[in-house]
């Protein structure tokens, strides 16, 4: 029996004020930037791999709480990620858009982003994808359900874009195997 | 109208004073002596309208943080799991890049410090200086952290606030079930590591920003029913105590 994101959020989620989360993440990104001497490409990479580590653990809670069944198409997968995954962990519901013709690639549009609530990027941080950790989380979580995907940001309101947009592309469906952790 | 010149005290002498018969310098704009007539678009005013060179000052994004109401009463909530996953990863990342337990705690403390500085500002702003005052006494400040700040961050006040009887610059805040470290399990060989070092950093950041310079550390003091019970030891700097004395000695 699979449950909707709304149900899981309402009934079996312990909730906290998102600001502590926002500020903690902000502090981490700031620390990474100073650790890597403002080499933003390295910061993106590090955030992505931290996200991956989170994703491979997070999928377990997701499956346990939702009892979601196997998805048969990418459209179903997208629906579950948006309406259940994002809802139960971040309490937001992004939009899906821009499907590619072969239905293997789509855009996630974040109307709100709790990670970036109090954030203003310095003008020299053009290369930083502030919320890159989300890409890693999606990649890690989907990896654990045998989907090898690439996820990347194309737009971010922090950079002056009108929306925050991620692209998710299915590379291939993996055979059952245990992926190695990433450090 | 009298023929006398009107004295305009706010205009520096030497500047020609205006009379109602003056025309706008650029033949453009409303002239009260002409009435609506003056707003007609003539060839010269059209030129000004069409040929002006400007830099747009209109904000391009309405998503800027400054456009949002920071006092917002509606709080966004999210799952405690998200915070725990993030915190777990932060600890293991700090662990990988640190040289030992002390170094790891220092790193966590440093991360918390930044949170504390910002939280103090935010909470005070939200409170809208409710009690129309700022905390200038150490004990009041500690009570503020123990209750208001704690509530804003973790949803409820901390459990105890105490002053050491033996050492006069030591204060303690106790949390029976610290939210951040709820899902952290310390391996045996890490002895006295306490991941609430991050929370200690938050307290330190807030105290320092408020001018009560202190050093804060986290210590596990488990009881049978509360295995995660943590005491935050606050060592206040000498200068703060001297100031307290000037303000009338320690309270309570």
UniProtKB/TrEMBL annotation, chain A:
Q: Which InterPro entries match?
A: Bet3 (IPR016721), NO_sig/Golgi_transp_ligand-bd (IPR024096), TRAPP_component (IPR007194)
GO BP: Golgi vesicle transport; macroautophagy
Localization of this protein: Endoplasmic reticulum; Golgi apparatus, cis-Golgi network
Its Gene Ontology cellular component terms are: endoplasmic reticulum; Golgi apparatus; TRAPP complex
Q: What is its main location?
A: endoplasmic reticulum
The record's Gene3D superfamilies line, in alphabetical order, gives:
Trafficking protein particle complex subunit 3
Which UniProt keywords are listed? Endoplasmic reticulum, ER-Golgi transport, Golgi apparatus, Transport
Q: Which CDD domains match?
A: TRAPPC3_bet3
Which branch of life, at top level? Eukaryota
- Stretches that traverse the bilayer: none
Q: Which family does it belong to?
A: Belongs to the TRAPP small subunits family. BET3 subfamily.
Q: What is this protein called?
A: Trafficking protein particle complex subunit BET3
Question: Which species does the entry assign this protein to?
Answer: Scheffersomyces spartinae
From the UniProt record, report the name of the gene that encodes this protein. BET3
Automatic annotation (TrEMBL), chain B:
**Any GO BP annotation:** endoplasmic reticulum to Golgi vesicle-mediated transport
InterPro entries (UniProt xref): NO_sig/Golgi_transp_ligand-bd, TRAPP-I_su5, TRAPP_component
Q: What sections of the protein cross the membrane?
A: none
Presence of the UniProt keyword Endoplasmic reticulum in the record: yes
Q: Name one GO cellular component term.
A: TRAPPIII protein complex
Subcellular location per UniProt equals: Endoplasmic reticulum; Golgi apparatus, cis-Golgi network
Role this protein plays? Plays a key role in the late stages of endoplasmic reticulum to Golgi traffic.
Q: Which family does it belong to?
A: Belongs to the TRAPP small subunits family. BET3 subfamily.
Q: How does it assemble?
A: Part of the multisubunit TRAPP (transport protein particle) complex.
Name of the protein described by the UniProt record = Trafficking protein particle complex subunit
């Amino acid at each position: 029996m699979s449950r909707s994101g709304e149900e899981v959020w309402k009934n079996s989620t312990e909730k906290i004020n998102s600001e502590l989360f926002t500020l903690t993440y902000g502090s981490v990104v700031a620390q990474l930037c100073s650790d890597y001497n403002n080499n933003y490409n390295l910061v993106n990479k590090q955030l992505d791999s931290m996200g991956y580590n989170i994703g491979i653990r997070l999928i377990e809670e997701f499956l346990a709480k939702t009892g979601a069944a196997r998805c048969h198409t990418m459209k179903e997968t997208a629906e579950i990620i948006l309406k259940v995954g994002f809802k139960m962990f971040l309490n937001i519901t992004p939009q899906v858009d821009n499907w590619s013709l072969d239905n293997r690639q789509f855009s996630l549009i974040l109307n709100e982003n709790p990670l970036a609530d109090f954030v203003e990027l310095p003008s020299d941080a053009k290369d930083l994808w502030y919320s890159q950790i989300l890409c890693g989380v999606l990649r890690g979580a989907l990896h654990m359900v045998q989907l090898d995907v690439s996820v990347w940001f194309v737009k971010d309101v922090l950079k002056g874009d009108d929306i925050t947009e991620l692209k998710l592309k299915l590379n291939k469906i993996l055979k059952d195997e245990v992926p190695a952790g990433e450090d | 109208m009298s023929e006398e010149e009107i004295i305009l005290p706010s205009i520096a002498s030497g500047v020609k004073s205006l009379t109602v018969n003056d025309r706008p310098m650029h033949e453009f704009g409303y002239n009260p002596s002409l009435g609506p007539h003056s707003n007609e678009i003539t060839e010269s005013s059209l030129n000004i309208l069409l040929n002006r060179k400007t830099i747009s000052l209109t904000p391009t994004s309405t998503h800027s943080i400054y456009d949002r109401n920071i006092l917002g009463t509606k709080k966004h909530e999210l799952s405690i799991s998200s915070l725990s996953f993030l915190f777990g990863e932060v600890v293991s990342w700090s662990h990988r890049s640190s040289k030992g337990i002390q170094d790891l705690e220092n790193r966590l403390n440093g991360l918390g410090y930044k949170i504390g500085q910002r939280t103090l500002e935010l909470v005070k702003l939200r409170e809208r200086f409710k009690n129309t005052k700022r905390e200038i006494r150490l004990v009041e400040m500690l009570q503020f952290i123990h209750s208001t700040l704690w509530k804003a961050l973790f949803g409820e006040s901390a459990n105890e606030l105490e002053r050491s009887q033996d050492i006069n610059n030591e204060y303690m805040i106790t949390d029976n079930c610290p939210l951040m470290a709820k899902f952290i399990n310390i391996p045996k060989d890490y002895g006295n590591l306490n991941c609430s070092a991050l929370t200690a950093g938050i307290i330190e950041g807030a105290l320092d920003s408020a001018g009560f310079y202190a050093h804060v550390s986290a210590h596990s003091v488990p009881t049978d029913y509360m295995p995660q019970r943590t005491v935050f030891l606050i060592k206040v700097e000498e200068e703060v105590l001297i100031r307290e004395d000037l303000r009338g000695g320690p309270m309570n």
